[in-house]
Amino acid sequence: MNNCIVLDGRKVAEESNSKLSAQASNLTNKYGRKPCLAAILVGDDPASATYIAMKEKACKSVGLETKTIIMNKDSTTEVVLELISALNEDENVDGILLQHPVPKGIDEIVCFNNISLNKDVDGVTTLGYGNMAMGLDSFGSCTPFGIMRLLESYQIDCSGKLALVVGRSQILGKPMSAMLLNKNATTITAHSKTENLPSLLKQADIVIAAVGKPKFIKCTGLKKGSILIDAGYHPIEKCGDVDMNGIEDIVSAYTPVPGGVGPMTINTLIYNTIKSMEKTFNV
Length: 283
Hints:
The protein has 283 residues and is of the alpha/beta class. The protein folds into two domains: 32-116, Leucine Dehydrogenase, chain A, domain 1 (Rossmann fold), CATH 3.40.50.10860; 142-262, 3-Layer(aba) Sandwich (Rossmann fold). 41% of the residues lie in helices and 16% in strands. It has nine helices and eleven strands. The chain has helices at 9-31, 46-61, 77-89, 108-113, 126-133, 142-153, 173-182, 197-203, 261-280; strands spanning 5-6, 36-42, 65-71, 95-98, 162-166, 186-190, 206-209, 217-218, 227-230, 242-243, 253-254. The strands form three sheets. The protein has a six-stranded parallel beta sheet, sandwiched between helices. A three-stranded parallel beta sheet has the order 3-2-4, with helices on both faces. Helix 2 (46-61) crosses helix 9 and helix 6 (142-153) packs across helix 9 (261-280). The longest helix is centred in the first third of the chain and has 23 residues, at 9-31.
């Protein structure tokens, strides 16, 4: 398919970062401080540390301040909650990020839900998800919201389309389905117990692969002319959730891996943090 479009998340994120940098500069000049993201890293997981470093670098590149708090892997839920409470009260902090996953001894959902709704820039609280699903004001989870912003930047209209989300995680699959539904897509959420997945893939106009398994979906099983968003990334295999061999002959548009969804996730975290500061000062 000669007119297949590569949905370049890296390019869109760079263009957005340029605008966000100007917004951050204006806020800093007007209110005497930079928009600030506080990141909590519990434990010594190398991948999590890498993700935090990437987010720090991206935030600083557009003029945000970052505060990274590294906690011992033996920290209790109560100790993490105390830190979250302090950050909730800190008037100079606009967003709070608790890096996922946390060590097994910590109740992640309880910690997420203690983040102030006004500072939930990663879109992980239950109430934030509920507000988003109901079309109320909230910060959308960064990966699905980043995907929606990427689709919008390429003027892809979801209305009336059959959208299939393969995956049902709390911070990707479920909010992704709700966001698509809010844009008038007819949405199906598939998962590990879905029996007729090949049939659904052949029918879907838009496929969001978010199952977390390398090359789980064969692109040859997709509907001709459909749109593919691969939200997976597996550093060992260096691939996403979709086997991309021959992809350009099948779909009308797709996200590359890497360079598609990933850059939009980090960009959206920055976007939400700046929005949080703007809300604080009623900008």
